[in-house]
Amino acid sequence: MNFGRISRSSTETTKTIALGRGDAGPLSPKLLPFKETKGLEVNLREIEPGEKYSLEFTARPPFENNTLRAKVQLDTGVPEDPSLIIPIYGSIAPRVTARPSRIVVPEKPRSGWKQSVRLAWDTPEAHKIISATVSDPTIVARVGETGGAQEVVLALASAQAPASGSYMLTIVTDDAEMPQLSVPINVGRPAPPRRKQSTAKGPPRAGNGKTPTKQEAKAMQAAEAAKRAKANRRANGSKPTAKPSIGAKPN
């Protein structure tokens, strides 16, 4: 079930799947328990007992920050097809966005390396950053203000860069609907070693660059062998022996 893009200002969006009796006999569907998803409500309604049912999916605020993901399972009551799994997804305009959305720390950062992160809310009311922490102690997060706008400033605790890997910046806000936002941090890894170029020769190629047929390959190998033999004769100063003509016997 795809909700597509849902506006954060949307009050309610409903989509329906109709369930009807097939050749396997009467239906007796049951909606199995599923993981509760913020902003999503699922209801199974009986229209005609054993014959027709309606599975309704309703998305309403408060929503997740930028995605709607869920999965529901239906017990159909039909032995031939007892279970029906329905994935649900949708895209929701984020309530708050981190800029940048991902932070990269160089493998060898320059002296005094810093990175600022700001949050932008898509809400009529203003919100504030309360605190910020990083999952690695070698990266320090400080909440400050520049030009009247709040920001989180990241810096290195020492001249030594953190170990290569992935970390997380966690920003706590005063927004009841989005009290916490996570921003991934990646510390640069050294480039993988270059592979040595193989000296093994592959199969001979035809003039058009395609792999030749077996017959073409044999002809090409025979021509190459003739070239090598001719070069050897020239190097040794010998003359080629005459080839017998077709139908004639050699002396």
Walk me through the structure:
The protein has 251 residues and is mainly beta. The protein has 2 domains: 2-92, Sandwich (Immunoglobulin-like), CATH 2.60.40.10; 96-187, Immunoglobulins (Immunoglobulin-like, Sandwich). 9% of the residues lie in helices and 42% in strands. The chain is built from 1 helix and 15 strands. The chain has a 4-stranded mixed beta sheet, with no helix packed on it. It has a 4-stranded antiparallel beta sheet with strand order 8-10-13-12, with no helix packed on it. Strand 4 (40-48) and strand 5 (52-59) form a beta hairpin. The model is unreliable at 197-202 and 238-251 (pLDDT under 50).
What key attributes describe this structure?
single chain, 251 residues, mainly beta, Immunoglobulin-like, 2 domains, 4-stranded antiparallel beta sheet, 1 helix, 15 strands
SSE layout:
Blueprint: E1 2-6, E2 13-20, E3 30-31, E4 40-48, E5 52-59, E6 67-75, E7 83-92, E8 96-99, E9 103-105, E10 114-121, E11 129-134, E12 139-146, E13 149-156, E14 165-173, E15 180-187, H1 214-236
Parallel strand pairs: 1-7, 9-15
Antiparallel strand pairs: 2-5, 3-6, 4-5, 6-7, 8-10, 10-13, 11-14, 12-13, 14-15
